[in-house]
Amino acid sequence: MANLACEFIGIKSINPFWLASAPPTDKAYNVVRAFEAGWGGVVWKTLGEDPAPINVSSRYGVHYGQNRQVLGFNNIELITDRPLQINLDEITQVKKDWPDRVIIVSLMVPCEEQSWKDILPLVEATGADGIELNFGCPHGMPERGMGAAVGQVPEYIEMVTRWCKQYCSLPVIVKLTPNITDVRKPAAAALRGGADAVSLINTINSITSVNLETMSPEPSVDGKGTHGGYCGSAVKPIALSMVSEIARDPETASLPISGIGGVSNWRDAAEFITLGASNVQVCTAAMLYGFGIINDLCDGLSDWMDKKGYSNINDFSRAAIPNTTDWKHLNMNYKRIARINQDNCIQCGRCFAACEDTSHQAILKTGDFDNREYSVIDDECVGCNLCQVTCPEPNAIEMVDVDTGEEHLSWLHHPANPYREEK
Amino acid sequence: MSFTHEIKSNRLLEDEITDNFHDISPPLTDKQVLIESERCLFCYDAPCINACPTDIDVPLFIRKINTENYHGAAKEILEKNILGGSCARVCPTETLCQQACVRNTEHDEPVAIGKLQRFAVDHLDTTQPYPFDRAASTGKHVAIVGAGPAGLSCAHRLARDGHKVTIYEAAAKSGGLNEYGIALYKLVDDYAQKEIDFVLQIGGIDIKYQHALGKDVNLNQLRENHDAVFLSIGMGNVNALNIPGEQYPNVEDAVAYVSELRQTNNLASLAVGKNIIVIGAGMTAIDIAVQSKKLGAENVTIVYRRNQSAMGASEHEQELAYKNGVSFVFNAQPKQIVGDENGISTMEFIRTQQSSNGKLQCKDEIISMPCDVVFKAIGQQLDSSPFGNDNPPALDQRGRIAVNEQFQTSLDKVFAGGDCINGKDLVVEAVDHGNKAALAIHQQLQQD
Ligand SMILES: Cc1cc2nc3c(=O)[nH]c(=O)nc-3n(C[C@H](O)[C@H](O)[C@H](O)COP(=O)(O)OP(=O)(O)OC[C@H]3O[C@@H](n4cnc5c(N)ncnc54)[C@H](O)[C@@H]3O)c2cc1C
Ligand SMILES: Cc1cc2nc3c(=O)[nH]c(=O)nc-3n(C[C@H](O)[C@H](O)[C@H](O)COP(=O)(O)O)c2cc1C
Ligand code: SF4
Ligand code: SF4
Ligand code: SF4
Q1: Around B196, how many Cα atoms within 13 Å sit in the side-chain half-sphere?
Q2: Is A137 one of the catalytic residues?
Q3: Which of A148, B124, B150, B274 could form a disulfide bond with B434, CB atoms 3.0-4.6 angstroms apart?
């Protein structure tokens, strides 16, 4: 059995699965249920200064896929709406009762030194394992000069991180916002400020839908809506890319990363870890299915690790980073083409429509209604994968390597590149 | 119809019978529709379109359902098939569109096209304007004989093209077999009449009820007084068994009995036999057998002279019969019916065997089965008597009206379609014939 226990910036956890700072971690009741279910840790719902903000009614929006399946989810909630002292007392008690579980306290106070100086000792006194700085909340809080408003200015990140390291002895995780052009800049700022790690991503600015009757964006509050934070499985690809950017850049590569964004199953978690994360945080998947999914997350991951011969998380951490590169280094002499396995093809013609209308006219349609056949014209196929993407049958289209007999040649060295470099 | 012996009404309570004749395939719920419409793959050059005789763009209407554009979905269907609502209910989809569905593999099931079609047509938004326009009047006048599916679809097309249409209908109601023949549980709640009201909303169609060709009007007159004629009189004659005893009471024509069943206000009042034998192997045989069971007949047996695999009724329909407690006897050829002028007691059959070359051979074994009613469901034929002897249209080898690809008969400006010409004898095909004949008529009238 693979060992899921791991250490993140000196904090030991029984598994790499933490609940992200959000409603699932809003109070002792939820957190205790999560620990009972088997979650390794939680990042407590973000604390701020009293008086606590007040939330509106109607808070979540959704982007549905097939059969009401939730692809993406958004919210316009603020940080915790409970008094600071209640949260602190609960954190203290839960940590005492669950010493082997991780509690990180998420924080967001105004960008003034005194505010941080005031709150940090209170948090440290709870016995929590670390703090996470919420520089990511994209709605509501930035209008008050906090959250993403700080996370979008690298200088502020560096400054606040430094205050935190100065006024408290706990490890500091800086939670990054994806609502920015180049995520490496805030990550580098966190590093300069002395952060022990970064976590990403927080939610993405979004409007999930418009009610065409009332002309209000959803979620609608008395007929009006505002942009909210997008999360759930739809954001996973964005999060994966951002995590890999930080892990690949020599300037930020040394920063430990807690991966967040659309983690819904063990495979997602494994992918985050191969691209740079040391552990993952989950919010939406737990909000949609409850805490019970932890069973599959642990089981599936450890099973896969056994099969691959990995005995702990470190064995495959950043394993995909060497293969994540810039476009200019890709081999232009590599060729793959589609191949249709007629035994599994149901003749729906989706591949044909896709390739014929929008790609390279590389699918050949023969026969009539009763005995049609779709096949690939090898010479026309550029190996774009579109047919395989559209095909409803999992094993009908295979992408196969073609031996071109030619050596590796990247754009960097390609004769057609006027700025080519000699090998 | 006079019944004796064990033939009586009220075999079941009225409530039981009402229950038995409920919609056999109730409408899908919104949730089922969402799941089912999502299953359609939006195939390229979809085979289901080709398998539908009226070429309904199945993937397109299903996609419209899926995006909750129900009105658009209904219009898409009705544009191709104005009786899309009844077709959705009566089409043997398992041998048409759904048989062709690419999802119909051993690991999967076809998309429920018929049920989705019903949902769409039922959700046509009637608060919106009628979905079809009439072209400016052409001043042409077309006579249609028979207001069944073929006649109605032809009339609607022609009316859209700006022609004036008069339908001569022998019966007191229109709809043809949709009104008088289809199994009651397939078309409930007087659907045929509601659909016809919708068809006629186009305007320009006049129906003359109880005006039979050959009786109240003749073909020559119609040809003289109209610019074109479309014959869609279905099949008026029933095939005979040609065996001794066929003339006795309670040896009945299945279609006539179904017609009575469909028109009665009180199903329980219908007289039903105790031991019923149905001769035949097609849709009509299944229908009369199942409906007899639902009315309370104790034993209903379908007897067919060939083996099961040769049956015309699809597996789906055979299953329906089994589920309703109908028994089957195969390889038994009618020999004679034993009875007198008061009724019948038994029917005798000769055991047959199918030889390897497919030929049916009689063995020297006689099977005798008790019965009080025998239903004949061995097919129908065109009744050509309404055409008279003075210049009737030519018939084909099967005795139906001969037509060319434009649905034109041997007579100038006389067209025909539906069951009265050679084909699959389905509602959806009758609609297709009506559509295509209308197009041919329209083209001819434009040239005049
Ligand atoms: C018992 C039974 C069950 C069936 N079940 C199904 C089913 O489930 N699904 C399916 O797709 N098909 C079914 N069919 C077949 C289907 O009903 C026919 O194919 C279809 O109705 C043919 O349409 P039509 O317009 O050609 O003829 P019909 O529907 O027969 O209409 C002919 C019309 O012409 C009128 N007419 C006849 N003679 C004259 C005359 N001399 N003058 C004026 N008017 C005249 C008749 O009164 C009638 O209104 C069934 C048929 C039967 C008999
Ligand atoms: C309703 C809701 C409230 C959230 N509140 C906070 C918060 O208070 N602090 C914070 O750092 N992130 C907050 N988040 C962001 C999540 O912690 C997480 O970064 C994001 O949802 C992406 O992960 P996921 O795709 O697993 O949900 C919130 C998310 C949701 C859905
Ligand atoms: S999309 Fe797949 S199943 Fe459909 S025709 Fe192409 S290969 Fe066959
Ligand atoms: S009309 Fe009948 S055959 Fe055509 S698509 Fe509809 S249900 Fe299928
Ligand atoms: S064949 Fe089936 S899946 Fe394909 S378009 Fe038709 S109904 Fe949809």
Answers
A1: 21
A2: yes
A3: B150
Residue A293 DSSP symbol: G
User: In this predicted complex, what is the ipTM?
Assistant: 0.83
Residue A265 has pLDDT above 60, yes or no: yes
**Half-sphere CA count of B301, side-chain side, radius 13 A:** 20
- Domains in chain B and their CATH numbers? 5-21+238-380 (3.50.50.60), 39-122 (1.10.1060.10), 141-236+382-447 (3.50.50.60)
- Measure the CA–CA gap between A131 and A107, rounded to whole angstroms: 7
Interface membership of B44 toward A (CB under 8 Å): yes
Pocket test for ligand 4, best of B89, B117, B432 (most atoms within 8 A of CB): B117
Tokens standing for A332? 């232009």
- Provide, as residue numbers in chain A, all residues whose Cβ is less than 8 Å from the Cβ of B35: 67
Secondary structure string (H, E, C) spanning chain B: CCCCCCCECCCCCHHHHHHHCCCCCCCCCHHHHHHHHHHCCCCCCCHHHHHCCCCCCHHHHHHHHHCCCHHHHHHHHHHHCCCHHHHHHHCCHHHCHHHHCCCCCCCCCCCCHHHHHHHHHHCCCCCCCCCCCCCCCCCCEEEEECCCHHHHHHHHHHHHCCCEEEEEECCCCCCCHHHHCCCCCCCCCCHHHHHHHHHHCCCCEEEEECCCECCCECHHHHHHHCCEEEECCCCCEECCCCCCCCCCCCEEEHHHHHHHHHHCCCHHHCCECCEEEEECCCHHHHHHHHHHHHHCCCEEEEECCCCHHHCCCCHHHHHHHHHCCCEEECCEEEEEEEEECCEEEEEEEEEEEECCCCCEEEEEEEEEEECCEEEECCCEECCCHHHCCCCCCCECCCCCECCCCCCECCCCCEEECHHHCCCCCCHHHHHHHHHHHHHHHHHHHHHC
| A238-250 pLDDT tens trace | 999 999 999 999 9
Interchain contact B34–A (C-beta under 8 A): yes
Sequence-distant (≥ 6) Cβ neighbours of residue A99 within 8 angstroms: none
| Positions of chain B with pLDDT lower than 70, given as ranges | 1-5
Which pTM value belongs to this model? 0.90
Which class for B354: exposed (0-12), middle (13-18), buried (19 or more C-beta within 10 A)? Answer: middle
Query: How far is the CA of B186 from the CAs of A216, B297, B315, B370, B430, in angstroms?
Result: 44, 20, 17, 30, 18
**Both tokens of residue A68?**
């009401």
**Is the minimum distance from the CB of B60 to ligand 5 under 6 angstroms?**
no
A405, two tokens: 């007999």
Structural domains of chain A, with CATH: 6-323 (3.20.20.70), 327-413 (3.30.70.20)
Q: Give nearest CA residue, ligand 1 atom 6.
A: B182
Whether residue A51 has pLDDT greater than 80 = yes
pLDDT at B5: 61
**Which tokens belong to B78?**
């009705």
